[in-house]
Each structure stands twice: as structure tokens, then as C-alpha cells.
Design goal:
single chain; about 270 residues; mainly alpha; two-stranded parallel ribbon; globular
């Protein structure tokens, strides 16, 4: 979500001062109304990586977007390109019939995928139905067909204990709201609104609901924190099964964690 211009507070986009200390890439690439998917990301990431390597440096992938990381390391399965008309038809059905109806249909066609998705995850449910209609195959099967044997990479995961994570999520949510998150969302709406990808950003739908009067101010922070905790649990599960990922001992103080990673990088791969 850092690719979107004007979505700074709610995505915790690093400040200009922070970017001045460490070069960052793939920020502010497009308008919130634009669709941005993993295929576009891989092309942009390849360009950025070439620029980093041309300076004699090594690129670091930083963040919790596990699916994008897996696509970057292992390549992406050869799924069909987006059929814009088909997707629009399915999204219209979701609005008219409800998200649960589409999820029920996906359960019949691709139960493995459907069980992984929340009924309200319209974007991924639509993609599952879309791929099945285009290919006659289940997306859950295609997602096991990564693009190749993979590339050399070291993956490190830092996962705080659940109770600490919950505390930090709550504090971070309040800090973002105090920093102008509501005003930021209002500016995006005034500038044309959110597109099919940016509207999925954590917390933004809840702020929109507040601005539209569907959510009270005292309900806003708890609703955002709840959705963020749910996302964090999915992240934890994803990285638990990420092949080759090395989990950094969280109990170590911050400087010692860095030293632990440096020592692991100096050692031969297991």
C-alpha cells in the first residue's frame, strides 16, 4: 500500500528524514484510484533492484506482505491475466447478492481456497471465481505452481509475542489517528476516492465508515485494531510455513538481534 500517493499516515510510510538516511523504493508510484497487483509489483521491484545493484548495494525486502515476498523469491504461478469485464461482473454480483453468496459459490468450486478466505474478503473470493471461470481450474491448485526453483535469498522473521503485538497495534492505531489519519482519508475521498486495491488497506475502510456516519468515533480505533490483529495472525501463520524462513529470537535486545542476523548471514546456509 506504500505505492499509493497521499496514503501516508495509515500505511506508516517512512518520513522524508528516514528515507534520507536509508534509500527506499516503490513509494508513491500511483494514485489511490489505480489498481496495483502483484504482476505490476514484480516489474517495479525488478527495476528498483537493478538500480540498487548498479550502486553496488544489496536490496532488502522489508515488510509483512508474505505473498509478494514469495512471488519475488520463487516466481509467480502462471495464472491468467485479469479479465476486466469478468471481474467487473463478479464485483457487481458481490454488491447485489452479497459477499457471502459469492463465497458460498467458491466453496463449491474451490473448497480449499474458500476455507482460507473470510467470506467478506471480496477481492480474493472474486479472483478465485474469476480464475475458475477463465481456466476451469482451481486457484488453490495454481497457487502451488510457483514459477521456478527460486532465487538465492535469506528470509528473517521478527514476531513479537501476541500480547505485546496487541498492545503495540492498539498504541499505533491511536497514534495514527492523532497524526491525522481521518483527515488523510477525507482528502483521498475528495480527490476521487479509493480504487479496487487501495480500498483494501488496513484501517481505511473503517475510517471511511466513520466519515460516512456508519461507525462512531469511539468505535473507530477498536475496529481498526481488531482488523489489524486478524491480519497479524494471518501473517504469523503464513511465515510459520514459509520455506527457509529463519525466526529471529525476539527475547534478544534490539542490538543483539541485529548481531544475531549478521552472524547467521556469515554462516553457510543450513
Amino acid at each position: 500500500m506504500l505505492v499509493y500517493r497521499g496514503m501516508d499516515v495509515g500505511t506508516a510510510k517512512p518520513t522524508l528524514a528516514e528515507r534520507g538516511g536509508v534509500p527506499h523504493h516503490l513509494f508513491d508510484l500511483c494514485d489511490p484510484r489505480e489498481r496495483y497487483d502483484v504482476q505490476r509489483y514484480l516489474a517495479d521491484a525488478a527495476t528498483a533492484e537493478r538500480e540498487v545493484e548498479a550502486r553496488g548495494s544489496r536490496a532488502l525486502f522489508v515488510g509483512g506482505t508474505g505473498f509478494y515476498l514469495k512471488a519475488l523469491v520463487h516466481g509467480l504461478f502462471d495464472g491468467p491475466p485479469v479479465d476486466v469485464e469478468l471481474r467487473a461482473r463478479l464485483e457487481a454480483r458481490a454488491r447485489e447478492e452479497g459477499a457471502v453468496a459469492l463465497h458460498r459459490e467458491l466453496m463449491q468450486l474451490d473448497p480449499v481456497l474458500a476455507r482460507r478466505l473470510h467470506p467478506n474478503d471480496v477481492r480474493r473470493v472474486v479472483r478465485g471465481l474469476e480464475v475458475h471461470e477463465q481456466t476451469g481450474r482451481r486457484l488453490s491448485e495454481l497457487q502451488t505452481e510457483w514459477g521456478g526453483a527460486g532465487r538465492a535469498a535469506r528470509v528473517f522473521v521478527l514476531a513479537p509475542p501476541p500480547e505485546e503485538l496487541e498492545r503495540r497495534i492498539a498504541a499505533r492505531t491511536e497514534a495514527m489517528l492523532a497524526a491525522g489519519w481521518i483527515e488523510e482519508v477525507r482528502a483521498v475521498l475528495d480527490g476521487g476516492g479509493f480504487g479496487p486495491t487501495s480500498c483494501q488497506a488496513l484501517g481505511y475502510p473503517e475510517v471511511v465508515a466513520y466519515l460516512e456516519g456508519r461507525l462512531g468515533r469511539d468505535e473507530l480505533a477498536p475496529a481498526i485494531a481488531l482488523r489489524t490483529r486478524q491480519f497479524a495472525r494471518r501473517q504469523r501463520t503464513w511465515f510459520k510455513h514459509f520455506a527457509g524462513a529463519e525466526h529471529v529470537p525476539y527475547e534478544l535486545p534490539v542490538p543483539e538481534r541485529a548481531g544475531w542476523v549478521e552472524r547467521r548471514l556469515a554462516e553457510p546456509r543450513d
